[in-house]
User: Which sequence fits this backbone?
């Protein structure tokens, strides 16, 4: 991975290689961490964090759902992120805030373990492969089901929950695919290992709704708004597995993956990225770079000295 100079940890800026934790940290053993994936893009006004407020809000929600008291406010984390990007001299980057239970008593009860917060950022390019955003990826419906709300909290972005995505990712990769699509416990289409999913059929977009076991994706929300503003209908509803392969277009959305088309599922051709995928992707990419006035409030500009 591409490193940067500094990592912010519990209020301090540390050299990248010094941002360490004890091996007996609670999160390391039991997955008791919550995190975010955020991106900042280069715009004419400087580096800008996409939907920063929404990501910090979701981080707080995830912490709350796992009974962790956040030791820093949203505004403090926002300011720390700005300073970190500026001090690392980054114009565009991926940002990873993480809140975790640290070193303290061993055992499952975490309530006496300290809650730490760290923020790292670094340059992270194409998430699903170099040509993925242009040509689309080959995906496989996973044999693993997405975590159910009966056992875990799909709406929380918690470290331990990602074992589910890790299993699906390894399975799809070892079978020769770039990504896995997970069904939920009822057999409906749910999401990718780190992305929400959309299908297009006869000009109408559809994506699993809030009460499906999805992570409530921030990119998903932005894509719904963009597609509707372009005049398209977006249905939030259950999607049957067969609808995936019979769709005219399928695409994945997420902070890391951005908007990545899917061109094949289970060795059945969907086709080259279709017209609606392309249209929405173009507006989304322009939005991220501050080129769409209508969505400028989605960008949190980092105050850094300009390049000139
Ligand atoms: N579902 C899952 C399971 C998920 O992890 C993500 C983000 C999404 C949907 C899309 O959410 P959003 O980023 O708010 O639009 N996955 C993050 C972690 C990826 C990783 O490999 O780590 C991300 O995209 O940053």
Assistant:
């Amino acid at each position: 991975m591409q490193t940067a100079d500094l990592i912010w940890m519990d209020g301090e800026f540390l050299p990248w290689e010094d941002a360490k934790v004890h091996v007996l940290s609670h999160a390391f053993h039991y997955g008791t961490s919550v995190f975010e994936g955020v991106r900042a893009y280069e715009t004419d006004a400087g580096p800008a964090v996409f939907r920063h407020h929404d990501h910090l809000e979701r981080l707080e929600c995830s912490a709350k759902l796992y009974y962790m008291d956040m030791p820093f406010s949203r505004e403090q984390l926002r300011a720390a992120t700005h300073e970190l990007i500026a001090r690392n001299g980054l114009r565009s980057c991926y940002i990873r805030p993480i809140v975790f239970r640290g070193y303290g008593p061993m055992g499952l009860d975490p309530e006496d373990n300290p809650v730490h917060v760290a923020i790292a950022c670094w340059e992270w390019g194409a998430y699903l492969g170099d040509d993925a955003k242009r040509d689309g990826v080959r995906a496989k419906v996973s044999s693993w089901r997405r975590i159910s709300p009966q056992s875990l909290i799909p709406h929380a972005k918690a470290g331990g929950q990602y074992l589910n995505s890790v299993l699906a990712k390894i399975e799809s990769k070892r079978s020769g695919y770039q990504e896995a699509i997970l069904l939920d416990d009822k057999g409906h289409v749910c999401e990718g290992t780190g992305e929400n999913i959309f299908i297009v059929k006869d000009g109408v977009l559809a994506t699993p709704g809030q009460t499906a076991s999805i992570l409530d994706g921030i990119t998903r929300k932005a894509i719904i708004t963009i597609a509707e503003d372009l005049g398209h209908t977006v249905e939030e509803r259950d999607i049957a597995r067969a609808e995936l392969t019979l769709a005219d277009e399928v695409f994945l959305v997420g902070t890391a993956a951005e908007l990545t088309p899917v061109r094949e599922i289970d060795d059945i051709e969907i086709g080259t990225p279709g017209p609606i995928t392309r249209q929405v992707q173009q507006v989304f990419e322009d939005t991220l770079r501050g080129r769409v006035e209508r969505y400028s409030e989605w960008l949190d500009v980092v105050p850094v000295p300009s390049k000139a």
Q: What stands out?
A: The chain has a mean pLDDT of 97. The longest strand covers residues 93-101. The CA atoms of residues 25 and 103 lie 4 Å apart.
